[in-house]
Write a structure and sequence with these properties.
Elements: E1 13-19, H1 25-33, E2 51-57, E3 61-67, H2 75-89, E4 94-100, H3 107-119, E5 123-128, H4 136-147, E6 151-153, H5 162-172, H6 175-178, E7 192-196, H7 210-221, E8 225-229, H8 234-240, E9 247-250, H9 255-261, E10 268-270, H10 271-279, H11 282-289, E11 300-305, H12 316-329, E12 334-339, E13 352-355, H13 363-376, E14 380-382, H14 383-390, H15 394-397, H16 402-408
Parallel strand pairs: 1-3, 1-4, 4-5, 5-6, 7-8, 7-9, 9-10, 11-12, 11-13, 13-14
Antiparallel strand pairs: 2-3
Helix pairs in contact: 11-16, 12-14
Length: 409
């Protein structure tokens, strides 16, 4: 039950720790959390895969701390670990670049700074192990003069400097970055929203999926009313209302049914489109939908699923979307899938990238993936936008979002 009450990973500020092997990243994690979360050893390369730790950092709120492998790792396995570290960089909201005070600054840290500047990610330079050198403050002053950056001196062993580090994290963290409205900015107090929630084989037993829960909570936060019904009861619910609802939100998979049932004067959209606006750039995803018309049989298409789940017979990303898209194109396409945190470093071979609703990743990760596609000249769209386009109702379901609707035309 405790897990049900925790903030989802995708809504937490992500704070990643980066640096060379044995810089003390894991020790800094443990000192920040005041727990032995990360495995600590004098052996270089102890941390192999990224380690995630959810916690509260007041007054910021829920955060996700991520420990990563050394950016200077070696060998074939080392290259794979560095690849995982680079994946974390794209989703990091605040980066801590951790250095050993006895061997503080090198080309590795310089490249990390350059990359975070390119990504637009705030970063902090942390000079760790100050207990191992006689004059850590003098080292920091000298580095600050050379690098023209501020260095925060800490010792994970004796816990010194961590009050200053926590304050710096609070100052650097983008407070409003994750706290974006999902639906509440579309509503006035007292409005009614009707949620169309189909229950199929992919629906989790005994609960709703995350976007549905978040949309329901956001509606309540707006002091609005929520009605939740399966698709076969939506017509009856609309007939029972004395006044039309302010909005109907449906699952994208039943777009066709919902569009026929809901009168055209009532705004209609989907959970996936709400998530596209919340987690990424909806206008960019709508622009990506127009590339569907240029697809030809044999083209390579990437489908990115940010969560890992057991595929069902009627899986949306593995079965339904490929079938709908191939029917629209008039021939077979070459599909590839990436799941979880994985995303290809090079997307230039694909003619289209189709992303899920992104409820399991944070906003910075989704924007980073969109930026990567844009820089490669590859259009990207998400499930809800693509389905609405193929069903011929995208313009209608974008009615609550005039800027994105304008991009379509």
């Amino acid at each position: 039950m405790a897990e049900m009450n925790q903030s989802p990973r995708g809504t937490r500020i992500h704070i990643g720790l980066f640096g060379r092997r044995n810089a003390g990243k894991s020790s800094v994690i443990n000192a920040l959390t005041k727990q032995k979360i990360a495995l600590v050893s004098d052996i270089a390369g102890t941390t192999t895969d990224p380690v995630y730790k959810a916690m509260e950092l007041l007054p910021l709120g829920p955060i996700m701390l991520i420990d990563t492998a050394g950016i200077d790792d070696v060998g074939d396995l080392g290259k794979l670990r560095i690849g995982k570290t680079r994946e974390v960089m794209t989703k990091t909201d605040v980066a801590l670049i951790v250095m050993d005070a006895a061997n503080p600054f090198s080309e590795f840290e310089e490249k990390l700074i350059e990359e975070f500047k390119r990504l637009g990610t705030p970063y902090l330079l942390v000079l760790n192990k100050c207990d191992t050198v006689p004059s850590a403050d003098e080292i920091a002053e000298k580095l600050q003069a050379e690098v023209k950056e501020e260095f925060i001196v800490v010792s994970a062993l004796n816990k010194s400097g961590f009050d200053r580090l926590r304050s710096a994290i609070l100052s650097a963290a983008p407070r409003a970055f994750e706290d974006r409205p999902l639906i509440r900015d579309l509503l006035n107090p007292g409005d009614t929203v009707v949620f169309c929630v189909p229950i199929d084989t992919a629906a989790p037993k005994g609960r709703l999926i995350l976007p549905q829960v978040q949309a329901l909570r956001d509606t309540l936060d707006a002091n609005a009313n929520a009605i939740v019904a399966k698709e076969n009861l939506i017509a009856a619910q609309l007939d029972n209302l004395k006044t039309p609802p302010a909005l109907v939100v449906t699952d994208s998979q039943v777009f066709g049914k919902a569009a026929k049932i809901v009168p055209k004067e009532i705004p209609l959209t989907s959970f996936s489109i709400l998530m596209a606006r919340n987690k990424g750039d909806l206008t960019g995803l709508v622009e990506g939908a127009k590339a569907i018309e240029s697809l030809k049989p044999g083209d390579k298409v990437l489908i990115a699923e940010a969560c890992t789940h057991q595929c069902q017979a009627e899986d949306i990303g593995r079965v339904k979307i490929p079938a709908w898209l191939q029917e629209h194109v008039g021939g077979e396409l070459s599909f590839e899938w990436y799941t979880g945190d994985s995303f290809p470093e090079d997307v230039s071979d694909y003619k289209l990238v189709i992303h899920c609703g992104a409820c399991m990743i944070n906003r910075r990760a989704m924007l980073s993936r969109q930026r990567q596609c844009r820089e490669a000249g590859v259009p990207i769209v998400n499930y809800g936008v693509l389905i609405a386009y193929i069903k011929g109702i995208l313009k209608r379901v974008l009615s609550p979002f005039p800027e994105a609707r304008e991009a379509l035309s």
